């Protein structure tokens, strides 16, 4: 495959490189007959303009990147899926960067993405989920956003004024709590999630408030923090079940934790939901794969991804772009929750 | 953030652009005192060389892309994870392209990646998994590989001579069949996977061969094709269970199918493995999340991804690169398989 360049095309069509560039990019009118001649040569050589060269001329690369903390947690592929579909529709291609939840890796990727002059960065999880993000980590994102549109998904950086698309996670957790209270549960626990992350903090706060509204409290020994993984859910549930008076309903920080909790409870001979009710969060594809199917909170994952790309598109094209968009979650009742034991 | 260019650095350091480039890229020796002066100016402005411009000089972008058919199937994030870690170690960054299993999208991505002059493409699933891939789809990949190293993971394009890294899926399926035969099963079924894909064909052939070795056959009504999804596994298992004489062991094309199969069997009141044994394939993280935990075949997913990046690195650096690398799968026995009903 000989590498035909824009110069070869210009030479053969007997026009200037600028003219070829105009034909390729539609940046300025070209006489019809000249345009035809150029297109004939392009067609003849099946010429593919070098995106690198073209982007240097047009000062854009047509690429959006997404930074996620864990590609193996199904929540993130679902957000990615929504973004990628929207990106393709808008003519962007998609970089995926996996930070493994390490802030150092995030910094590294931010630096690479600035270098590569991507047209937008979607930031999900990691530092934007910290209740107290160190100022230098905030500044790095703010500085990046001066040159490249940045959209935060389900996260926040204090005083940063960055564009955000997020689920009202507190409202979702309140729905979960209201649901088990309505089913007659009074002994309610919350498990999973790191204590320093806003996603955890918001959910815990909302659950506490909802319980208090009903004259109930969230006991200290029924609030157990951990990772967002299946393994963590399993371990935390095991701890809960070792207690003398175990809860009858457990609200989990996400579906992974809930799946682990189901496993731990079942292994100990408990029937779900007859003996204990379990609620997840995310409505990931796995929630219908487990037995029993998971009652959970859906947060329109695809839509989050889609809206993030839409914002980047709007910013890049000088269109009005909402600074902050909040999506309302919904409760999805399946099989893992039922009336409290002893209730009619 | 003022955009400092290489020209500004050159001007302020009172050297040529070429000298700055040499300092940045280490492409030729520069006098120590000059180098120091240039580095001082670079440091002062916190100058980040534009990767686009740099790659035009160096004719490389430091980017590897992976094309996958379905980012929400955990097998692919696991391969990606292996590749991404290796890529970072080798100084590459990583593009992820999701084709949704559409050959048209694959073509589009190949074209974009050629344009973007990535340094390597890892191709997983999609057309490379077709038993009879149309010649023009093969040619497209072969043409791409003339300019960019391409590595196929768990797939193949006839007569293409492309680099491959793959699991011996036939050997894996044979292990699964041998396992249930050893447990005394005689009534064995195979479900899942599209009939035209090599991953399905190889597994079915291997299971048939293994059964024949033991004087058994794979009945036509016990070989049911479908998608690779949980939903498909559920539907196919439901079909099997409607039959008058149902099998006592079911080998599934992948873990997703097996999880769906477990669900269908449990919903019908069957106990696993007492009434029916189920085997998966892939050993995805989900295989330990379900109840009962899945007996499955591990194919060293991370290792596949890692080796693919290694090949690209070797090709790009003129090192010897094995044309074809095969990994041997292993059986992982967990809780979803047991002795055939009626056996001691």
From TrEMBL, chains A, B:
Superkingdom of source: Bacteria
UniProt keyword list: DNA-binding, Repressor, Transcription, Transcription regulation
InterPro entries recorded: Cro/C1-type_HTH (IPR001387), HTH_LacI (IPR000843), LacI/GalR-like_sensor (IPR046335), Lambda_DNA-bd_dom_sf (IPR010982), Peripla_BP_I (IPR028082)
Domain HTH lacI-type per the UniProt entry, residue ranges: 4-58
CDD domains, per the entry: HTH_LacI, PBP1_LacI_sugar_binding-like
Domain HTH cro/C1-type: 2-52
Pfam families the record matches: LacI, Peripla_BP_3
Annotated PANTHER family: HTH-TYPE TRANSCRIPTIONAL REPRESSOR PURR-RELATED (PTHR30146:SF148), LACI-RELATED TRANSCRIPTIONAL REPRESSOR (PTHR30146)
Protein's UniProt name: LacI family transcriptional regulator/LacI family purine nucleotide synthesis repressor
Source organism per UniProt: Paenibacillus methanolicus
